[in-house]
Amino acid sequence: MIRRSCVVGSGSALPKRRVTNEELAKTVDTSDEWIRERTGIAARHIAGEGETTATLAAEAAQKALDAAGLTAADISLIVLATATPDQTFPSTASKVQKLIGAGNAYAFDVAAVCSGFLYAMATADALLKVPAGAAPNGVHRALVIGSETFSRILDWEDRGTCVLFGDGAGAMVLEARDFPADQADSAPGIIASRLHTDGEHNELLYVDGGPSTTGTVGKLRMKGREVFRHAVTNLADVLREVMDEAGVAADRLDWVVPHQANARILDATAKKLNLPPEKVVKTVQDHANTSAASVPLAYDVAVRDGRIRPGQLVMLEAMGGGFTWGACLIRS
Length: 332
Hints:
By secondary structure, the protein is of the alpha/beta class. The protein contains ten helices and 13 strands. It has helices at about 20-25, 30-40, 55-70, 90-100, 115-130, 160, 225-245, 265-270, 285, 295-305, and strands at about 1-15, 15-20, 45, 75-80, 105-110, 140-150, 165-180, 190-195, 205, 220, 255-260, 315-320, 325-330. The strands form four sheets. It has a five-stranded mixed sheet, with helices on both faces. A four-stranded mixed sheet has the order 8-13-12-11, with helices on both faces. The chain has a two-stranded antiparallel sheet with strand order 2-3. The protein starts with a strand and ends with a strand.
């Protein structure tokens, strides 16, 4: 038998306030043309009063549970990826546990910025695959969430960064299922994952503050050209690694769901791998870069509009500050 962590439901959430490029140009030295040409972004959602990383995460989580036909009581693990937690501690995941009523679950956060959801997926997958009785609390179903309120760490006078980001959340419910070994090529679930970190490039994408250094939250800082160059190379490499591990050629992929950072990065990565543009899920135009939320948010959009269907091969990929990057191949 083989054990797979299967995606049985997804959900997403965006703040109520939608800010177009035209509206942003009234307060920032920019224009709709400038933003679209360089990023492909048309609008983003900005969290308002009462909307936090935890509340957005809880909304996305509840939608994922509803899609799976489950309740919060069915969940035994919550892994939440975020770089913008509600508090330094306790974890935002613990707040989500309370908000949705998942009293049977243990919960914790992971921090890998834009790659955070893939790190959270790999962590949950590992715990779900542990033999019964060996995993903490006998994990059988997990909620994996990416949620961010990046608007609260942006320097709104830096047009090179503030136009790129937005707020939002995405979630998936994973369930451990066993299949006969001879069904490995067709069984749903997570097939292969790869994660990477390179701490040499901290100064290219970071927040200039923290509890143990400045005692402040800080603001996001980025050297865009250098990040772009590393992103295209690293993402293409990790996609090849996962395809090689799974024994899957690029032409067998039904969809690639990339981190929604910049349309130019998405296009350049697809070109480097000879992937048809029509196989790449793009939602960056609607919500900008939502960091750890972007991959599950885009996945949920594509599931709900009918693009991603059961049985298809879907590649998830992302890169973020650190640098961190990774990819995960699933059969939906």
